[in-house]
Specification:
Length: 492
């Protein structure tokens, strides 16, 4: 398999994506109600067979992606967009994969239309006869009574999808997938525009857009992180081209999907302030945030949901996720102390956020001083924020990975993030559950990948050029022709 050409990788990955989609029809995150004959839960034997098929397909997709990246790192030029289309197409009509979050989006959009306070209650307030009632039945247990942590811009989009589809589950899911594909297209545009640093656009798109973690969780799972990333990276691209006001508007819209996009404002400020004096410094420090703040205020008023999103940003931290290092450490210390574990866990989580802010500030200062590319600094900041966050899901890694890809995909950070992406895609089942063997598979892939990084580090410099046949001089060509003539003459 590892001798596959680029074309072989393209079709191997497409076959893997098709297997993921077909397996998902039996083992995906199928709705409890409203799926009809199309997406109804199957018998246990068929569900197991579907899960096995989906995992095999996922492994083929990861293997094809990995080999394709190695070829690109060695200087291959190929039709990356054609490969992206081949790998994305099989997922377009699949049921939700690896997460039930899309049902929360539908229910929250319905809550906006039904006049419920989406920042004061959860989808459980929807009853029979309400729009989104069928979708609310499929919301994961932790989120049934949890207020929305998303900004009003996304809730307006979700409400529009519910209104157009009448809240029917299957059409609403496909409507949100259309938004996810649009977010993917926006990401591709922005990453291509930023260039990818040494190695060029093809490799940047490989790490950012062809990444199985993105295909599975943004296209397959329809997580709104994809929309946040697309708007955020698009805003950064515009800022690097001198259009910082419009860039800040896009980042403001990204914040109104999910708030972590606000980190990008700091680095847009760095782009404004670098090379100037105190006035430029103050301009960079204040103006991008002011523009984005005006966008946030306008979106909040337009949506009619008010500013409740400000108080729901911490609701997710109440749910323990095993990938959160600070939550795990805090819980362990709390249990070892012999007292209540939650207070200790809360303190450690807050310390983690303080440490993340310190890392972000240090990276921004280095970028301001000209010691670090601001786009790369943003990517590394988002990675640090995820690593030290009290709530971590596998697809959160994409926040920083896409940005790092756009700046320096062939650097050591890009290579390590590729390994982490390949590992974390195994953490959840197609059904959205997190089984113990998901962590085992992720650990095995991570260990193998880190060994590979150590043995075959990618150079961060220019791509190696393909070999060029040597040019022969005129004298050599004449000598060759003379030799050929001599061979043709009969012996004396």
């Amino acid at each position: 398999m590892w001798s596959f050409s680029a074309s072989g990788c393209r079709w191997l990955g497409a076959g893997g994506a098709l297997a993921v989609a077909v397996g998902g029809w039996a083992a995906g995150t199928l709705p409890v109600r409203g799926g009809g004959a199309l997406w109804e839960p199957r018998g246990s034997a068929l569900t197991v067979a579907g899960a096995v098929l989906a995992y095999l397909g996922l492994t083929l997709l990861v293997a094809a992606w990995w080999r394709y990246g190695v070829l690109l790192a060695r200087g291959l030029r190929d039709g990356v967009l054609a490969t992206l289309a081949c790998w994305t197409a099989p997922l377009l009509l699949a049921p939700p994969l690896h997460s039930a979050d899309v049902y929360s989006y539908i229910a929250q959009g319905a809550m906006v239309l039904e006049g419920h306070d989406v920042y004061g209650s959860g989808p459980s307030v929807l009853g029979p006869g309400d729009l989104g009632w069928d979708a609310a039945a499929s919301v994961g247990g932790n989120w049934t009574d949890t207020p929305a942590p998303y900004g009003p811009a996304f809730l307006l989009l979700a409400a529009a999808v519910v209104k157009v589809t009448g809240g029917a589950v299957v059409p609403a899911v496909l409507g949100l997938r259309l938004i996810a594909v649009g977010a993917l297209a926006l990401t591709v545009w922005a990453v291509r525009g930023l260039g990818g640093g040494p190695g060029g656009r093809d490799g940047a798109l490989w790490l950012a857009a062809l990444n199985p973690l993105l295909l599975i969780h943004v296209v397959g799972g329809m997580h709104n992180d994809g929309l946040m990333i697309g708007l955020m990276v698009g805003g950064v691209l515009l800022a690097t081209r001198g259009r910082w006001v419009l860039g800040s508007v896009l980042v403001g819209l990204a914040m109104m999907v999910k708030s972590p996009a606000a980190v990008a404002l700091l680095f847009i400020g760095v782009l404004l302030a670098r090379g100037g004096g105190a006035r430029a410094f103050l301009k960079g420090l204040v103006l991008p945030g002011a523009v984005a703040g005006a966008v946030a205020a306008g979106a909040s008023l337009l949506a009619g949901t008010g500013f409740g999103w400000l108080r729901t940003q911490s609701v997710a931290a109440a749910i323990h996720t095993p990938l959160s290092l600070t939550s795990d450490l805090g819980l362990a210390l709390g249990l070892l102390s012999g007292g209540e574990a939650e207070p200790v866990k809360s303190v450690v989580q807050k310390l983690g956020l303080v440490a993340a802010l310190a890392v972000v500030a240090a990276l921004a200062w280095r970028a301001y001083r000209g010691r670090l590319d601001p786009v790369l600094g943003l990517g590394l900041s988002l990675v640090a924020l995820v690593a030290l966050s009290p709530m971590v899901q596998p697809w959160y890694l994409l926040w920083g990975t896409v940005v790092v890809a756009a700046a320096a995909w062939r650097g050591r950070a890009g290579q390590v993030l590729a390994v982490l992406s390949a590992a974390l895609v195994y953490e959840t089942q197609p059904s959205g559950h997190t089984p113990w063997y998901g962590f085992v598979l992720a650990g095995l892939v991570l260990a193998a990948g880190l060994v590979w990084v150590r043995r075959e580090p990618w150079a961060a410099g220019p791509l190696p050029r393909p070999p060029v046949p040597p040019q022969r001089t005129r004298g050599a060509r004449e000598a060759t022709r003379a030799g050929d003539s001599a061979e043709l003459r009969p012996p004396h």
